[in-house]
Amino acid sequence: MAVVTFLSDYGLDDDFVGVCHGVIARIAPQARVIDVTHGIARHDVRAGALVLERALGYMPAGVHLAVVDPEVGGARRAVALRCAQEERLLVGPDNGLLSLAAKRFGGVVEAVEIGRSPLRLEPVSASFHGRDVFAPVAAHLAAGTIALAAGGARLDPGELVQLVLPRARATDAGLVAHVLHADRYGNVVLDAGRADLAAAGLRFARALTVNGRRALFATTFADVAAGELVLYEDGYRVLSLAVNRGSALDALGLEVDDEIVIATAS
Amino acid sequence: MAVVTFLSDYGLDDDFVGVCHGVIARIAPQARVIDVTHGIARHDVRAGALVLERALGYMPAGVHLAVVDPEVGGARRAVALRCAQEERLLVGPDNGLLSLAAKRFGGVVEAVEIGRSPLRLEPVSASFHGRDVFAPVAAHLAAGTIALAAGGARLDPGELVQLVLPRARATDAGLVAHVLHADRYGNVVLDAGRADLAAAGLRFARALTVNGRRALFATTFADVAAGELVLYEDGYRVLSLAVNRGSALDALGLEVDDEIVIATAS
Amino acid sequence: MAVVTFLSDYGLDDDFVGVCHGVIARIAPQARVIDVTHGIARHDVRAGALVLERALGYMPAGVHLAVVDPEVGGARRAVALRCAQEERLLVGPDNGLLSLAAKRFGGVVEAVEIGRSPLRLEPVSASFHGRDVFAPVAAHLAAGTIALAAGGARLDPGELVQLVLPRARATDAGLVAHVLHADRYGNVVLDAGRADLAAAGLRFARALTVNGRRALFATTFADVAAGELVLYEDGYRVLSLAVNRGSALDALGLEVDDEIVIATAS
């Protein structure tokens, strides 16, 4: 049974997601659609790319449809991509959304531009390419009735838009990291792993400060008292900040891309 | 594989939607359920009817379950309907919710009142007919084990409740249209199409005013700068108002049913 | 076709739910997953237990996965349970979440501790046991490739954590009941049924007071005018408070566990 996974910033208040499911079901009645999430913040391409990158490894290999598309109707390309590993196919706008997931699966070995794909639903609207372009192409690929090359115009994978992310760095003042993303609980995902901490001379289970505020480096937020700040490896092996039964985002007054300094508590 | 589509105002915070899925799965294990949306504003029959009308064309033909039912437990009828086209079956309360979709598929050729259907779950609760009446009837119809006529008491389709919508009109002051509906982004759907604009002497790509505020008639909101107002044909070929990366609803202080005047900018 | 039902407090804004669906699909591609709800308030084990108890009777028998897990990564046990009736299997944390549903299906006849199950995804994260422990075990059980006893270490069902709920009681002042739970509409579920009302000498359709405020005991909130308070049997045969087209929770200023007094209006 073919699988289509689906991630977007459409939310579930409107019928956008449902209509895309309908379009897929009409074209590929046997395909199973798994919703990764539709709760990506509106137009937040980076959050979508990060979630897609980490989630797809837990999804069956198949066609991975993703739509976070602030420039819909503009000049950005619409693309379908084949990754080097597991024959994973990615379908979505070429704005960096797919780039981290593509790298995760060995890079792109075949790419087509699908903005004028013969598989589109006609007439194509200016604002709902999820329904008219991306979902139909994903469904046809899942149905196996067409090869990727027949889905659009061949494109050099080297021309695809790549997402540029901030990078944590060790300094004399400690580890300077950045807020990559936050979940609904206010847990903050950083652009750093355990190795970055070690490179900055910081050790596990040592008392730390984060932006001057005391924090514990622990296994999970259950290791600290309610209201306390904890630095931990999250479910995806990435360093994260949390407040047990609270919100680290609010407690530290952080926003995405903010710099934070992690240091040894004096 | 039989398809049941499902639209409601139940939201996803509670178990209402999940329980209806369970009821359907017990009666029709082979049926596939596609959620159109459960984010219709509570008790907003008209929004439900409009979303259903435009979404169903993208759904596989099947049984289309819809529940926005402010008078549940009161005197309103519960109905199952067969449309003239594509053998589409509609199941829900008879309060206008199904009326636009029925018209879209050629009108109703067979109707039954299912409030006392032998297919109900007993005992029927006073407040959760989605679970006890509508979902079981929809599931039995999808399973194909029963004909529509056996689902309830025959009803004259002419007696079904019809939704009355406002109508845009051309005036000396310009096109007077109404707010039919707004999505979560604050994009405003009007009761007018391109032909209505033309009838009022307004032209594509001309500078316009909407309630005295400058707007551009363009292909999509990507055609205007962030924060600017744009009038465009939405994904369903209906005129809509948007603010690029903002909310037209908020920018113009609009509510559903409000009248707006579209005129040529002087 | 095997069924896995899934309830959690993960919400749909992030990819937690989607990733668990992916994990299940990889292990048990033929299993059908039905989402009960993921809108349980964060860490509200009791709300999860109550919703699970009442919803499962409407779900096909199968594997019932539930994750509301404030102590994830701490000392609480992870368990898989077989109920006496219908071969229902429950999978989740042993914090009382599963206890009401287990009782509903005749009690637990077989229990295993799955925290170190050979079926886990390695490496197990400290904070996402839904993905790494519960979903994999549920999926393997649904796939039928493994017996419950092979899923973990045998556990005495008598050691499982039981949820303790408040109990309504008849007093001279009337029926003293408690707020068990509230839905998104502000409808308040009480820990009392019709028999408790009768035991306190209160009768159907009689004018009552709830915390001193007039209320009607009626069949449904459609029986009272907009804004009025009504006491009724909800869709699960439990006494509930509602305000027609409003919120009883807000109108009475209630919170979960609050005591309310229902008396005859003088």
Quick take:
3 copies of one chain form a homotrimer. By secondary structure, chain A is of the alpha+beta class. Chain A is built from 6 helices and 15 strands.
How would you describe what is shown here?
The structure is a homotrimer of 266-residue chains. Chain A is an alpha+beta fold and 266 residues long. Helix content of chain A is 21%, strand content 29%. The first copy, chain A, folds into 2 domains: 3-159, S-adenosyl-l-methionine hydroxide adenosyltransferase, N-terminal (Rossmann fold, 3-Layer(aba) Sandwich); 169-264, Bacterial fluorinating enzyme like (Elongation Factor Tu (Ef-tu), domain 3, Beta Barrel), CATH 2.40.30. In chain A, helix 1 (16-27) runs parallel beside helix 4 (129-143). The mean pLDDT of chain A is 93. At the A-B interface, helix 1 of A face strand 1, strand 2 and helix 2 of B.
